[in-house]
Amino acid sequence: MAEAQTANRTIRLTVTRQDDPSSKPYKEEFEIPYRPNMNVISALMEIQRNPVNTKGEHTTPVCWESNCLEEVCGACSMVINGKPRQACTALVDKLEQPIRIEPMKTFPVIRDVVIDRGRMFESLKRVKAWIPIDGTYDLGPGPRMAESKRQWAYELSKCMTCGVCLEACPNVNDKTSFIGPAPISQVRLFNAHPTGEMNKEERLEALMEDGGIEGCGNSQNCVQACPKGIPLTTSIAAINRDTTKQLFKKWLMS
């Protein structure tokens, strides 16, 4: 009996689509067969297999991005039922239907729910979110981090550049140059590294420019939306303190 009920079940999805970056968005509805343990990615794959909408019209398959399918790569970020999140961990059984799928609005749309996250990657370049080792010779083992520091730094390293925190932040939009929560948290991570600390002042100076730390409005949406539970507001507070110290240091040295 249960198997028969499952066989007759369907899933309804409303997808906000866009044919190219310059065209207007439109909504298209789909109804697909239900399978146990489906997530939004598997639902989109079913539409890709049989791209027919609820009007019975053959249409183009929905375009989206995905890679790891285990909430590690951050590629499948989209807005699902009004909430920015990862599609791979959005289970159909836990979602209200019709499932509403939209692209994140903070970033330019390339097609359907595929977005250009270039704004975030450029911000990471701006703050030099890496450890500058040229690799021309063997440096040997690096200095060890204190265990108390390593534990919280590891939490920051879970960032998968999914962009969800930027989507949730009301201060990140096309009218502002605010760098966003993720790059700020990465500055804290790399400044805590024994080798990365060599560029600490350079990173802090970047955050003291327009669009840096001063753009945060303390809405705290980012920490609530982060799929990995990264303490973003704690990082922002810590960097706020560090940039203030850096500012006073510059005044004293001038």
Structure, explained:
Keywords: 2Fe-2S, 3Fe-4S, 4Fe-4S, Iron, Iron-sulfur, Metal-binding, Oxidoreductase, Tricarboxylic acid cycle. Belongs to the succinate dehydrogenase/fumarate reductase iron-sulfur protein family. The chain has helices spanning 2-8, 40-49, 118-126, 147-156, 164-168, 181-192, 200-207, 221-225, 232-253, and strands spanning 10-17, 26-33, 77-80, 83-86, 99-102, 109-111, 114-115. It is α+β, with helices and mostly antiparallel strands and 254 residues long. The chain has a 5-stranded mixed sheet. It has a two-stranded antiparallel ribbon with strand order 6-7. The chain folds into 2 domains: 2-115, Roll (Ubiquitin-like (UB roll)); 118-253, Fumarate Reductase Iron-sulfur Protein, Chain B, domain 2 (Orthogonal Bundle), CATH 1.10.1060. The protein contains 9 helices and 7 strands; from the N terminus they run αββαβββββααααααα. α4 runs antiparallel to α6 and α6 (181-192) crosses α9 (232-253). β1 (10-17) and β2 (26-33) form a beta hairpin.
CATH class of the largest domain: Mainly Alpha
- Unreliable stretches covering 5 or more consecutive residues: none
How would you characterize the largest beta sheet?
Answer: 5 strands, mixed
Report the sheet-strand fraction.
5-15%
Structural class computed from helices and strand pairing = alpha+beta
- From the spread of the alpha carbons, the general shape counts as elongated
CATH homologous superfamily heading of the largest domain? Alpha-helical ferredoxin
User: What is the total number of structural domains?
Assistant: 2
Number of strands: 7
